[in-house]
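pasting for the record
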Amino acid sequence: MRILVLGGTGMLGKPVVDRLIGNHQVRLLTRSAAKARGIFGDAIEVAEGTITSKADLGAAMSECDAVHLNLTPATEYDAMRDVLELGQSRLARVSYVSATTLSEKDRWFYRTDIKMRTEELLRQSGVPHVIFRPTWVMETLHNFIRGKWAIVLLGKRPPPLHFFAAADFGRIVASSFDDDRGLGKALYVYGPEAITLSDATERFIAACHPSARVVRFKLWQARLAARLLRNDDFADVTKLVAYLDVAGEHGDPTEANALYGAPTITLDEWCTMRTDSRRGMPH
């Protein structure tokens, strides 16, 4: 198939593209063709444009059989709507990266509401699809390193999270394009061990950034620091961690594991993986 990947240069998008290359023709819609070429070379097709432009999206979808969406809450609902309007009569499938915490009782959280509305659009469209609901990816631990400083956020009641490596996720998503048994399903992706966010961060710091100066924040302290620093990204992280204290993980990964193989890379193994000089992953 010719597959258009939206969000293909991101944390969870790059490993998917890596695994699709060779078995399928991959096209990326990106604001920077040079950046995409710098990551993937000539192994992909590049459509330069923005996800918020329906004209750009339509041009990128030309002659594509499938679309994979891995976008931010700011763009994913509108992008899904436009993808379905532009390709409903001819797309062989759409795959979408959602989240594991979705439930009606937690719909008060804006990220949950957006993802649930985006899933609903896809299910109601009639287009063959696979929805992936992953928990926390190990690569997000990079976000807690700020130069010489390392930040550990201490939730009130931190739930254990089955962290997975992006490389495992790329394998699972790419496998779904060669195996139709996942069509129509919402598949939960959990890693091999359950760890709280604070414990995972501490282990990552010790293994990969042992000289960093560690600052441990309770959530109220982190929220205050974000306000004083006027750092919207940090404030958003504190909201997400507070939400996870309430929501935890939902769902059962058994079906995804049976279909496409369970993630196997542990946090300790991930911490010892070599950095890819072109992609800057895993650490």
